[in-house]
Design goal:
Oligomer: single chain
Number of domains: 1
Helix content: over 70%
Strand content: under 5%
Number of strands: 0
Radius of gyration: 20 Å
Structural class: mainly alpha
């Protein structure tokens, strides 16, 4: 049995070693462009709350939070706390404002996730036009009933907030430019996520449709949300391999695609985040975080 595992591992590594390096470079590029877009979105939300924080500082906080997410159980459990502590201590942003800014970011992110889910459903539907109309109606309802949508999102994320923080979150809707820009940036991040997965599958010779990639991306997202292990180790990999094989990707290629995707989104991102944490004053933030 051990010999079979070794042989299989060598097969997967051989497949990965044969891919054109420019696909890996492009996948890495899309991943870190996403990080910058996340930072721009966060900066806009903080600006809407009257706080100016340097973009580079926010990028560092996000990179370090990715490392924290990858070593703590449950989705974003440690990373969000690190982001709050980082800008509160290094940029003198009150804890309440930094907390609300991150909650609002997650609410904005719900919109493109809904759209991505709709695109995935259209892949299976025999009536895509009806689903498109439902999507447009849903987007309009979200905007009209923004307060209810915010409350619903907070329940989904299991994020309790005080009445004062809730007022701050709802007041951000009046900053139409910031809200719209935040939704567009969130959408761009998810588009890049789909593009990255597309590039990785192309690297192994599989030209999957964007709608199918959207389905796989949604499955990957859901696996990440329900995973209880640090960084979703084991759960995300097994789920992604199962999803890929379900859609006709041979097992060997499915495992290789998953390994390459996780190298970009987990292994390398953890390494970069750890370096940022060590070299950018993160030790002070880490100590403050452990003392909470």
């Amino acid at each position: 049995m051990f010999e079979n595992i070794v042989a299989s591992t060598e097969q997967y590594l051989t497949l990965i070693g044969e891919i054109p390096l420019y696909y890996l470079a492009l996948a890495l590029f899309t991943y870190y462009i996403s990080v910058v877009l996340y930072a721009i979105r966060w900066k806009l939300v903080l600006r809407g709350m009257g706080k100016e924080v340097p973009l580079l500082e926010l990028v560092k906080a996000i990179l370090a939070s990715i490392f924290m997410n990858n070593i703590t159980p449950m989705s974003r459990s440690g990373g969000e706390l690190l982001r709050i502590t980082w800008i509160s201590r290094r940029s003198k942003v009150p804890v309440g404002i930094s907390t609300v800014s991150i909650i609002y970011e997650r609410i904005l992110e719900t919109v493109p996730v809904f759209v991505l889910f709709l695109i995935g459903m259209m892949y299976f539907s025999t009536m895509p036009d009806i689903l498109l109309l439902i999507g447009i109606a849903g987007a309009a309802a979200i905007w009209i009933k923004w307060g209810s949508f915010v409350s619903f999102s907070l329940k989904i994320f299991k994020t309790p907030v005080s009445d004062e923080d809730m007022e701050k979150i709802l007041s951000l809707r009046d900053c139409h430019n910031i809200t719209l820009a935040g939704i567009l940036l969130s959408s761009a991040v998810w588009i890049l996520d789909v593009v990255r997965l597309k590039l990785i599958t192309l690297a192994f010779g599989f030209d999957l449709s964007l709608s199918l990639i959207a389905v796989i991306s949604i499955a990957n997202l859901l696996l990440g949300l329900v995973a209880f292990t640090p960084g979703g180790i084991g759960i995300i990999e097994g789920g992604l391999v199962g999803t890929l094989t379900h859609f006709g990707i041979p097992l060997g290629f499915a495992v290789s695609i998953t390994l390459l995707e996780r190298f970009v989104s987990y292994v390398l991102s953890s390494l970069v985040g750890f370096i940022v944490l060590l070299t950018s004053g993160g030790r002070e933030v880490w100590k403050a975080l452990k003392s909470q």
